[in-house]
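User: C-alpha coordinates for TRAP transporter solute receptor, TAXI family, please.
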Amino acid sequence: MKRSLGTAGLVGAAGLAGCFGDDGSGSGEAPGADGGMVMTTSTQTTAAYTMSTVIANVVNQNNDTVNVQAQPSEGTNANIGRLARDESDIAYIQNWTASKIANEEEPFKNLDFQPVQAFHLYDLAWFMCSANDGWTSVGDIGQGDRISPTPSGSGTAEMLEYALGFAETDGYERISIGYGTQGSAMSEGRLDAGAGTFVNLAVEPSWLQQMKSTVDLRLLQFPSDVVSELEEDPSVIMSEVDTTQFEGYGYAPDTLNTPALAYNFVTRDDFDYDTLYTFLETLWANRDGLGEQNALLGKMENGEFWIKNGYETLPFHPAAADFYKEKGVWNDEYTVAEQ
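Assistant: Done. Predicted C-alpha coordinates:
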Protein backbone atom coordinates (compact mmCIF):
# COMPACT_ATOMS: atom_id res chain seq x y z
CA MET A 1 0.00 0.00 0.00
CA LYS A 2 1.37 3.41 -0.94
CA ARG A 3 0.12 6.93 -0.63
CA SER A 4 1.68 10.37 -0.72
CA LEU A 5 1.94 12.85 2.14
CA GLY A 6 2.55 15.66 -0.31
CA THR A 7 3.31 18.88 1.55
CA ALA A 8 0.59 18.64 4.18
CA GLY A 9 1.71 19.12 7.73
CA LEU A 10 5.36 19.87 6.92
CA VAL A 11 7.43 21.11 9.84
CA GLY A 12 10.37 23.45 9.34
CA ALA A 13 13.74 23.29 11.07
CA ALA A 14 14.28 27.00 11.61
CA GLY A 15 14.26 26.61 15.39
CA LEU A 16 17.34 24.43 15.17
CA ALA A 17 19.63 27.11 13.82
CA GLY A 18 21.25 27.79 17.18
CA CYS A 19 21.71 24.13 18.02
CA PHE A 20 22.28 22.24 14.81
CA GLY A 21 22.97 24.89 12.16
CA ASP A 22 20.91 26.55 9.46
CA ASP A 23 17.59 25.18 8.33
CA GLY A 24 17.05 23.28 5.10
CA SER A 25 16.17 24.44 1.65
CA GLY A 26 12.51 25.08 2.40
CA SER A 27 11.45 24.01 -1.08
CA GLY A 28 7.88 23.28 0.04
CA GLU A 29 8.20 19.65 -1.01
CA ALA A 30 8.28 16.77 1.44
CA PRO A 31 11.84 15.57 2.12
CA GLY A 32 12.54 12.56 -0.10
CA ALA A 33 9.68 13.31 -2.52
CA ASP A 34 12.17 13.16 -5.42
CA GLY A 35 13.16 9.61 -4.44
CA GLY A 36 16.59 10.62 -3.17
CA MET A 37 17.73 9.38 0.24
CA VAL A 38 20.97 10.13 2.08
CA MET A 39 21.70 7.46 4.70
CA THR A 40 24.10 8.20 7.56
CA THR A 41 25.47 5.96 10.29
CA SER A 42 28.96 6.44 11.72
CA THR A 43 32.56 6.99 10.62
CA GLN A 44 33.94 5.39 7.46
CA THR A 45 35.93 2.64 9.21
CA THR A 46 32.95 1.24 11.13
CA ALA A 47 30.85 -1.85 10.47
CA ALA A 48 27.76 0.38 10.47
CA TYR A 49 28.98 2.42 7.53
CA THR A 50 29.92 -0.72 5.59
CA MET A 51 26.48 -2.18 6.28
CA SER A 52 24.83 1.02 5.07
CA THR A 53 26.71 0.84 1.76
CA VAL A 54 25.40 -2.69 1.22
CA ILE A 55 21.84 -1.62 2.04
CA ALA A 56 22.11 1.35 -0.35
CA ASN A 57 23.45 -0.81 -3.19
CA VAL A 58 20.75 -3.45 -2.75
CA VAL A 59 17.97 -0.86 -2.85
CA ASN A 60 19.47 1.07 -5.77
CA GLN A 61 19.94 -2.04 -7.91
CA ASN A 62 16.41 -3.34 -7.38
CA ASN A 63 14.06 -0.39 -7.90
CA ASP A 64 13.60 2.46 -10.40
CA THR A 65 12.37 5.31 -8.20
CA VAL A 66 14.46 5.46 -4.99
CA ASN A 67 18.19 6.19 -4.91
CA VAL A 68 20.13 5.85 -1.65
CA GLN A 69 23.51 7.43 -0.94
CA ALA A 70 25.36 6.01 2.07
CA GLN A 71 27.53 8.67 3.71
CA PRO A 72 29.74 8.54 6.83
CA SER A 73 28.87 10.64 9.87
CA GLU A 74 30.30 11.53 13.28
CA GLY A 75 27.76 9.36 15.09
CA THR A 76 24.25 9.16 16.48
CA ASN A 77 23.93 12.62 18.03
CA ALA A 78 25.39 14.22 14.93
CA ASN A 79 22.90 12.28 12.80
CA ILE A 80 19.97 14.12 14.37
CA GLY A 81 21.66 17.39 13.45
CA ARG A 82 22.08 16.15 9.88
CA LEU A 83 18.36 15.28 9.72
CA ALA A 84 17.55 18.78 10.98
CA ARG A 85 19.72 20.40 8.31
CA ASP A 86 18.41 18.17 5.50
CA GLU A 87 21.90 16.68 5.16
CA SER A 88 20.51 13.21 5.88
CA ASP A 89 17.16 11.56 5.21
CA ILE A 90 17.50 8.33 7.17
CA ALA A 91 20.02 7.92 9.97
CA TYR A 92 20.74 5.51 12.75
CA ILE A 93 20.59 6.41 16.43
CA GLN A 94 20.44 4.34 19.60
CA ASN A 95 18.21 4.11 22.65
CA TRP A 96 20.30 6.59 24.67
CA THR A 97 19.80 9.31 22.07
CA ALA A 98 16.15 8.32 21.59
CA SER A 99 15.48 8.82 25.32
CA LYS A 100 17.13 12.24 25.29
CA ILE A 101 14.99 13.25 22.31
CA ALA A 102 11.81 12.08 24.02
CA ASN A 103 12.76 13.90 27.24
CA GLU A 104 13.66 17.05 25.27
CA GLU A 105 17.13 17.12 26.77
CA GLU A 106 20.00 19.11 25.28
CA PRO A 107 20.99 19.27 22.50
CA PHE A 108 17.53 18.11 21.37
CA LYS A 109 15.42 20.48 23.46
CA ASN A 110 14.13 22.58 20.57
CA LEU A 111 13.70 20.06 17.76
CA ASP A 112 11.16 21.31 15.23
CA PHE A 113 10.52 17.87 13.79
CA GLN A 114 9.67 14.47 15.24
CA PRO A 115 12.26 11.73 14.64
CA VAL A 116 10.37 8.54 13.75
CA GLN A 117 11.55 4.94 13.48
CA ALA A 118 12.03 2.92 10.30
CA PHE A 119 13.87 -0.33 11.09
CA HIS A 120 16.31 -2.05 13.48
CA LEU A 121 19.94 -2.52 12.46
CA TYR A 122 21.74 -4.22 15.35
CA ASP A 123 22.61 -4.27 19.05
CA LEU A 124 26.08 -3.34 20.28
CA ALA A 125 27.75 -4.13 23.59
CA TRP A 126 30.18 -1.25 24.20
CA PHE A 127 33.25 -1.60 26.43
CA MET A 128 36.49 0.15 27.30
CA CYS A 129 39.79 -1.46 26.36
CA SER A 130 43.47 -0.70 26.82
CA ALA A 131 47.00 -1.81 25.95
CA ASN A 132 48.34 -0.63 29.33
CA ASP A 133 50.13 -3.38 31.25
CA GLY A 134 48.12 -4.81 34.12
CA TRP A 135 44.86 -2.96 33.42
CA THR A 136 41.79 -5.17 33.92
CA SER A 137 39.07 -2.75 35.04
CA VAL A 138 37.70 0.68 34.18
CA GLY A 139 38.67 1.46 37.76
CA ASP A 140 42.28 1.49 36.59
CA ILE A 141 41.60 4.71 34.67
CA GLY A 142 43.07 7.55 36.70
CA GLN A 143 44.11 11.17 36.81
CA GLY A 144 45.55 12.41 33.53
CA ASP A 145 44.98 9.20 31.56
CA ARG A 146 44.01 9.82 27.94
CA ILE A 147 40.62 8.25 27.26
CA SER A 148 38.51 8.10 24.09
CA PRO A 149 35.08 6.58 24.86
CA THR A 150 34.25 6.68 21.12
CA PRO A 151 34.77 9.82 18.97
CA SER A 152 33.20 13.09 20.08
CA GLY A 153 29.78 13.67 18.53
CA SER A 154 28.45 10.18 19.05
CA GLY A 155 25.64 9.39 21.46
CA THR A 156 27.62 6.31 22.47
CA ALA A 157 30.28 8.61 23.91
CA GLU A 158 27.74 10.24 26.24
CA MET A 159 26.50 6.88 27.45
CA LEU A 160 30.01 5.52 28.10
CA GLU A 161 31.10 8.73 29.84
CA TYR A 162 27.99 8.51 32.00
CA ALA A 163 28.72 4.87 32.90
CA LEU A 164 32.39 5.64 33.63
CA GLY A 165 31.22 8.27 36.11
CA PHE A 166 29.87 5.50 38.34
CA ALA A 167 33.37 3.98 38.52
CA GLU A 168 34.98 7.13 39.97
CA THR A 169 37.18 7.70 36.94
CA ASP A 170 37.13 11.49 37.29
CA GLY A 171 40.25 13.31 36.25
CA TYR A 172 41.01 11.57 32.98
CA GLU A 173 41.74 13.58 29.85
CA ARG A 174 38.93 13.16 27.34
CA ILE A 175 40.34 12.96 23.81
CA SER A 176 38.71 11.89 20.53
CA ILE A 177 40.31 9.12 18.44
CA GLY A 178 38.67 7.47 15.43
CA TYR A 179 37.80 3.80 15.73
CA GLY A 180 40.26 2.72 13.06
CA THR A 181 43.23 4.58 14.57
CA GLN A 182 42.88 3.57 18.22
CA GLY A 183 45.37 0.70 17.91
CA SER A 184 48.13 2.90 16.53
CA ALA A 185 47.36 5.60 19.12
CA MET A 186 47.76 3.02 21.89
CA SER A 187 51.01 1.67 20.47
CA GLU A 188 52.40 5.21 20.24
CA GLY A 189 51.40 6.01 23.83
CA ARG A 190 48.82 8.62 22.83
CA LEU A 191 45.80 6.66 24.14
CA ASP A 192 45.43 4.89 27.49
CA ALA A 193 41.95 3.48 26.92
CA GLY A 194 39.61 3.44 23.95
CA ALA A 195 36.28 1.93 23.05
CA GLY A 196 35.41 -1.43 21.55
CA THR A 197 32.19 -3.18 20.66
CA PHE A 198 30.74 -6.60 19.96
CA VAL A 199 28.00 -6.58 17.31
CA ASN A 200 24.91 -8.42 18.55
CA LEU A 201 27.15 -9.41 21.49
CA ALA A 202 28.89 -12.01 19.31
CA VAL A 203 30.80 -10.46 16.39
CA GLU A 204 34.03 -8.45 16.37
CA PRO A 205 34.03 -5.57 13.86
CA SER A 206 37.08 -5.34 11.60
CA TRP A 207 38.47 -2.24 13.35
CA LEU A 208 38.44 -4.09 16.69
CA GLN A 209 40.27 -7.02 15.12
CA GLN A 210 42.80 -4.53 13.77
CA MET A 211 43.31 -3.10 17.26
CA LYS A 212 43.84 -6.59 18.63
CA SER A 213 46.48 -7.30 15.99
CA THR A 214 48.25 -3.98 16.65
CA VAL A 215 48.53 -4.10 20.46
CA ASP A 216 48.09 -6.55 23.32
CA LEU A 217 44.49 -5.47 23.85
CA ARG A 218 42.89 -5.81 27.27
CA LEU A 219 39.12 -5.71 27.88
CA LEU A 220 38.23 -3.60 30.90
CA GLN A 221 35.57 -4.93 33.26
CA PHE A 222 33.15 -2.74 35.22
CA PRO A 223 33.48 -3.50 38.96
CA SER A 224 30.64 -5.60 40.39
CA ASP A 225 29.32 -2.82 42.62
CA VAL A 226 29.24 -0.44 39.65
CA VAL A 227 27.45 -3.09 37.57
CA SER A 228 24.77 -3.34 40.26
CA GLU A 229 24.28 0.44 40.22
CA LEU A 230 24.11 0.58 36.44
CA GLU A 231 21.59 -2.28 36.31
CA GLU A 232 19.27 -0.18 38.48
CA ASP A 233 19.66 2.88 36.25
CA PRO A 234 16.76 3.11 33.74
CA SER A 235 18.88 5.00 31.22
CA VAL A 236 21.44 2.20 30.83
CA ILE A 237 21.06 -1.32 29.40
CA MET A 238 23.69 -3.69 30.81
CA SER A 239 24.80 -6.78 28.90
CA GLU A 240 26.77 -9.92 29.66
CA VAL A 241 29.16 -10.95 26.89
CA ASP A 242 30.67 -14.44 26.84
CA THR A 243 34.25 -13.59 25.85
CA THR A 244 35.33 -17.23 25.66
CA GLN A 245 33.99 -17.15 22.09
CA PHE A 246 36.84 -14.79 21.15
CA GLU A 247 40.59 -15.26 20.94
CA GLY A 248 43.70 -13.11 20.95
CA TYR A 249 43.08 -10.65 23.78
CA GLY A 250 45.80 -9.80 26.27
CA TYR A 251 43.17 -9.93 29.00
CA ALA A 252 39.46 -10.70 28.98
CA PRO A 253 37.18 -11.78 31.83
CA ASP A 254 35.12 -14.86 30.92
CA THR A 255 31.98 -12.72 31.22
CA LEU A 256 32.27 -9.04 30.35
CA ASN A 257 29.62 -6.87 32.03
CA THR A 258 29.25 -3.72 30.00
CA PRO A 259 26.60 -1.31 28.64
CA ALA A 260 24.75 -2.12 25.40
CA LEU A 261 22.78 -0.05 22.90
CA ALA A 262 20.05 -0.87 20.38
CA TYR A 263 20.57 0.91 17.03
CA ASN A 264 17.58 1.76 14.84
CA PHE A 265 17.23 3.88 11.71
CA VAL A 266 15.03 6.96 12.05
CA THR A 267 13.82 9.61 9.64
CA ARG A 268 11.79 12.81 9.88
CA ASP A 269 8.04 12.62 10.49
CA ASP A 270 7.53 14.65 7.29
CA PHE A 271 9.67 12.35 5.12
CA ASP A 272 7.86 11.25 1.96
CA TYR A 273 5.60 8.24 2.56
CA ASP A 274 6.03 6.62 -0.85
CA THR A 275 9.81 6.92 -0.86
CA LEU A 276 10.21 5.29 2.54
CA TYR A 277 7.67 2.60 1.67
CA THR A 278 9.49 1.76 -1.57
CA PHE A 279 12.82 1.69 0.27
CA LEU A 280 11.50 -0.81 2.83
CA GLU A 281 9.63 -2.83 0.20
CA THR A 282 12.75 -3.17 -1.96
CA LEU A 283 15.09 -4.03 0.91
CA TRP A 284 12.57 -6.57 2.27
CA ALA A 285 12.18 -8.28 -1.13
CA ASN A 286 15.95 -8.76 -1.31
CA ARG A 287 16.67 -9.52 2.34
CA ASP A 288 17.54 -13.19 1.74
CA GLY A 289 20.83 -12.21 0.11
CA LEU A 290 21.91 -9.57 2.63
CA GLY A 291 23.91 -11.99 4.79
CA GLU A 292 25.93 -13.11 1.79
CA GLN A 293 27.04 -9.54 1.10
CA ASN A 294 27.71 -8.68 4.74
CA ALA A 295 27.50 -11.27 7.51
CA LEU A 296 26.34 -8.67 10.03
CA LEU A 297 23.20 -8.09 7.93
CA GLY A 298 22.26 -11.77 8.05
CA LYS A 299 19.77 -11.24 10.89
CA MET A 300 17.71 -8.99 8.61
CA GLU A 301 16.74 -12.09 6.64
CA ASN A 302 14.31 -12.69 9.53
CA GLY A 303 11.45 -10.23 9.07
CA GLU A 304 10.73 -9.95 12.80
CA PHE A 305 14.25 -8.63 13.35
CA TRP A 306 13.32 -5.41 11.50
CA ILE A 307 11.26 -4.20 14.48
CA LYS A 308 13.27 -5.88 17.24
CA ASN A 309 14.09 -3.57 20.15
CA GLY A 310 11.97 -0.72 18.83
CA TYR A 311 12.05 2.35 21.06
CA GLU A 312 9.00 2.91 23.22
CA THR A 313 10.05 6.56 23.39
CA LEU A 314 9.72 7.32 19.65
CA PRO A 315 6.88 6.52 17.20
CA PHE A 316 7.27 4.76 13.86
CA HIS A 317 6.87 6.53 10.53
CA PRO A 318 3.39 5.80 9.10
CA ALA A 319 4.91 4.18 6.01
CA ALA A 320 7.00 1.83 8.16
CA ALA A 321 4.08 0.96 10.41
CA ASP A 322 1.80 0.22 7.44
CA PHE A 323 4.51 -1.87 5.80
CA TYR A 324 5.14 -4.03 8.87
CA LYS A 325 1.43 -4.49 9.48
CA GLU A 326 1.02 -5.78 5.94
CA LYS A 327 3.94 -8.17 6.44
CA GLY A 328 2.46 -9.46 9.70
CA VAL A 329 5.37 -8.49 11.95
CA TRP A 330 4.02 -5.32 13.55
CA ASN A 331 4.11 -5.01 17.35
CA ASP A 332 0.99 -3.33 18.72
CA GLU A 333 2.99 -2.00 21.68
CA TYR A 334 4.67 0.50 19.34
CA THR A 335 3.13 3.84 18.43
CA VAL A 336 2.73 5.51 15.02
CA ALA A 337 3.41 9.15 14.23
CA GLU A 338 0.50 11.32 13.12
CA GLN A 339 -0.04 11.29 9.38
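User: Anything notable?

Assistant: Residues 61 and 67 are 9 Å apart (CA to CA).
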